[in-house]
Write a structure and sequence with these properties.
Number of strands: 12
CATH topology: Spore Coat Polysaccharide Biosynthesis Protein SpsA, Chain A
Number of helices: 11
Strand content: 15-25%
Shape: globular
Structural class: alpha/beta
CATH superfamily: Spore Coat Polysaccharide Biosynthesis Protein SpsA, Chain A
Largest sheet: 10 strands, mixed
CATH architecture: Alpha-Beta Complex
Length: 272
């Protein structure tokens, strides 16, 4: 490899939980200890409050002397959205780039497993891990192309959807593939944790910043698929502390609807 850094990582925050971010960074530090080179981590703050940025700066300083991470903080003067924030870190040259939520903790071998897998398959452009929630319940990060009906149920009434439309929900979430815990090629991947071949990510220009929040990961998946395979890799494991748009209030639901309309208009409608 020409670049001394094998892996770059970007984490975007906007008044996000500093305690969860601390857990994320410490899990990164542990996982990076198994790599041959220190991981270059960029934490991008999307114009959070002044008090939050003070706390964030102190947190980043805690890891300045880490032997396993080379960490930097980027303070954006405006909220660029999820994809726009991550794009600020794409100029960093590396072999692989990890797109990571600030509410995800990595299992100790996650990075080593993922990088070894992509290094052994030149056609792989993205790996998505197996995930569970903080209580150990499975989360499904792989997705089939969504229908409008499934997304409405998932966004507005996820518990109702799981109760009365479980077959459609399970198909969308690829539970058949994920529960089998076998490597599989997938159409779409969640943006909470994506290990991507950096060259391919730069070839497509990163995230489409017209998606401020939601569906930017699905759009990215479809564009990356033109360059290679998107793979579910069950031995790469994470814990995700996030939630559905329905649990985050009406503002998030409005953004979900706006981005969903853009996604379907751009990539094609599927109603049921």
């Amino acid at each position: 490899m020409n670049d001394p850094s094998q892996l770059t990582v970007s984490i975007v925050v906007h008044n996000s939980s500093l305690e969860l971010l601390r857990e994320t960074l410490h899990s990164l530090e542990t996982a990076a200890s198994l790599l041959s080179n220190a991981a270059e981590v960029t934490v991008i703050d999307n114009n959070s409050s002044v008090d939050y940025q003070r706390g964030l700066t102190l947190l980043v300083e805690e890891l300045r002397d880490s032997a396993n991470l080379s960490i930097s903080l980027c303070l954006s003067r405006e909220n660029l959205g999820y994809g726009g924030g991550h794009n600020l870190a794409l100029s960093n040259a590396s072999d692989f780039h990890l797109i990571l939520n600030p509410d995800v903790t990595l299992k100790p071998q996650a990075l080593q497993v993922g990088i070894d897998a992509m290094s052994s398959d030149d056609e792989a452009v993205l790996l998505t891990p197996s995930a569970c929630g903080p209580e150990g319940s499975p989360e499904y990060l792989c997705k089939r192309y969504p229908s409008l009906w499934v997304l409405l149920m998932r966004a507005i009434a996820p518990s109702l959807g799981r109760r009365y439309f479980s077959a459609q929900m399970d198909s969308y979430q690829m539970t058949d593939i994920c529960d089998a815990r076998q490597v599989a090629q997938v159409p779409l991947a969640s943006g909470c944790c994506m290990l991507v071949r950096s060259k391919s990510l730069r070839q497509i220009g990163g995230f489409d910043e017209r998606y401020f929040m939601y569906f930017e990961d699905f759009d990215l998946s479809l564009r990356l698929a033109d360059y290679g395979k998107l793979l579910y890799w069950p031995e790469m494991r994470i814990v995700h502390h996030g939630g559905y748009a329905a649990s985050k209030g009406w503002r998030h639901l409005r953004m979900f609807a706006s981005s969903g309309f853009r996604f379907f208009r751009q990539h094609g409608w599927r109603w049921i």
